[in-house]
What we know:
Oligomer: homodimer
Helix content of chain A: 25-40%
CATH superfamily of the largest domain in chain A: Tetrapyrrole methylase, N-terminal domain
Largest sheet of chain A: 5 strands, parallel
Largest interface: A-B, 95 and 95 residues
Keywords (chains A, B): Cobalamin biosynthesis, Methyltransferase, S-adenosyl-L-methionine, Transferase
Number of helices of chain A: 7
Order of helices and strands of chain A: EHEHEHEHEHEHEHEEE
Domain Tetrapyrrole methylase (chains A, B): 6-218
CATH class of the largest domain in chain A: Alpha Beta
Protein name (chains A, B): Precorrin-2 C(20)-methyltransferase
Shape of chain A: elongated
Number of strands of chain A: 10
Structural class of chain A: alpha/beta
Strand order of the largest sheet of chain A: 3-2-4-1-5
Organism (chains A, B): Candidatus Scalindua japonica
Number of domains of chain A: 2
InterPro entries (chains A, B): 4pyrrol_Mease, 4pyrrol_Methylase_sf, 4pyrrole_Mease_sub1, 4pyrrole_Mease_sub2, CobI/CbiL, CobI/CbiL/CobIJ_dom, Uropor_MeTrfase_CS
CATH topology of the largest domain in chain A: Cobalt-precorrin-4 Transmethylase, domain 1
Strand content of chain A: 15-25%
Amino acid sequence: MMRGILYGVGLGPGAADLMTLRALDCLRKVDCIILPRKDEKSLSVSWHIARETVGPIPGQERLSLNFPMSRDPKVTSHAWNIAIKEIKDRIFAGKSVAFISLGDPFIYSSFIYLYEHAQKSWPEIEIKVIPGVSSITAAPIAAGIPIADGQERIAIIPAVYNKDDLRTIIRMFDTILLMKASSVMSEIIEILESEGLLDKSVYVASATMDKEQIVTDIRDIKGKRGMYFSMVVIAKKNHSGVLFGNGEKKE
Amino acid sequence: MMRGILYGVGLGPGAADLMTLRALDCLRKVDCIILPRKDEKSLSVSWHIARETVGPIPGQERLSLNFPMSRDPKVTSHAWNIAIKEIKDRIFAGKSVAFISLGDPFIYSSFIYLYEHAQKSWPEIEIKVIPGVSSITAAPIAAGIPIADGQERIAIIPAVYNKDDLRTIIRMFDTILLMKASSVMSEIIEILESEGLLDKSVYVASATMDKEQIVTDIRDIKGKRGMYFSMVVIAKKNHSGVLFGNGEKKE
C-alpha cells in the first residue's frame, strides 16, 4: 500500500505574513490540511491565520478535527482517537496530510503528540516538520525587548510552577518568559514585586495578531482573566553588550 | 529632513525557504540592505541565505559592513562606529534600510546593538523588527526532538557558564539548549555523563543548512573544533503528555 507523508507545519505567531515560504508551499501542495479546533462550536485559530494566504486549492481536503483543552484523559483520549484514525486513514491511503500549528510545531503544540504517536505506531511513514516563528521571539519583539545577547540566559516557563522554583529561576536567568501567565498573574506580580523586577516586566498577549495587547505595568492585569496566548517577559539586564566589548555575537 | 525606516529582518535558521513572507517582502522593497560579514575577506552568511530568493532589485543598494567577532572593545567599537555612520547617513537621507540577521533579530544577534543604539540616539526614526524562525526550534526539529510540551520548562544557555550553575539548571529544567557549545564540549560531556544524560543529548550544527550535522552520541564531538552555529539539545523527559491527560496545549 502506498503511504503518504505527515507534515507538521508551523504557521508563525499569528500574522499571516509571518508564515514561512516553506510552510505556504507545503500547504498549497498537500492533499489534506487538518484544521485543529477546540470543539465543534469553535473555528480553527490556526486555520484563520493561514486561510486567506493559502487560498482555494482545487481537490484539497480541509478537515476540521477537535482537540479539546482538557486535562481529563477521557475527554482528550476520545478526541485524539478520532483524530488519529482520520489522519491514519489518509496517510495509509497514500495522501499527504499537513497538521497546522500556531507558532512552531515542536513548542507547546498539539502536533508533538501526533508526532510521537506517528513515530511509535507508524514507523514506516515519513514525517516532516516545518519550523515556524514562535511567540518566544515574536512577543518580546512586539514589546520592543531584545530577548538575549552575548552571554545572557533565557528561561521559558509554563504558568504552573512552585514559587520557590520561580524565584530561583528569576535569579539565575537574564530573560524569563512566563507562558500562559494570565491565570497566575497575582502570584507573578507578588514575586516580581519582591524581587524588584516589576519595572522590567511586560505583559504581551496575542503578539502580531489584530488583538495584540502590550501592558507595560503588569499590575494592570491583576484579577483580569487574560487571553490564552499571553506571556510575561521579564528582561533583567540593561542591554549594552558588544559596543562595550563584553558580548559575543552571531553575524 | 525626511527620515527612513530601520528594519531588523530575521532570515530564519539557514534554509532560504524558511524566510517569512514578511521578510521577503521587506527585502524586496527597501532602499538598502546591510549585509553583515565578519571582515573584508568574508562573505555575508546571512546574505548567502537570502540572496537568491530576494533576487536582483533595480536601484537597491546592498552594502557590506564588517562586524568582527571579537571581544576587544577597540576592534568592535571601530567597526561599529563605521557601521552606525553608514546606516545613519542613509536613514537620515530618507532611505529605508534593512539589517539582516540569521535566525531572529532579537536573539543573540548583532541587530540588538544597532536597535539599542538607534532607540537611544535616533529617537525620531521608526524601527520595525521582523521576527524569524530561530535555531532554538529549528535545531531540535532537525534532531527530531520536540522541544517542550505541557508543563515543561526550557533553558537556553550560551556556552560560557560555571559548572555548578549548569548542573543546577539541568536539574531544574526539562529541555536545555546549550548554544555555541563546541568550544566547551569536554566540560559538557563530563557534566552530562555524571548526570546520566548522555543518552538524552544530541549535538546539532548548522540546522536546516546544507552542511547540517546531527550527532547523537555527543562524545564523538569531544576534542573536535566544532562549527559556530552549533547547539547541544538535552531533552530529559520521555514525552507522553496530553494523550494521557497530563498536558495542556495550544490549538
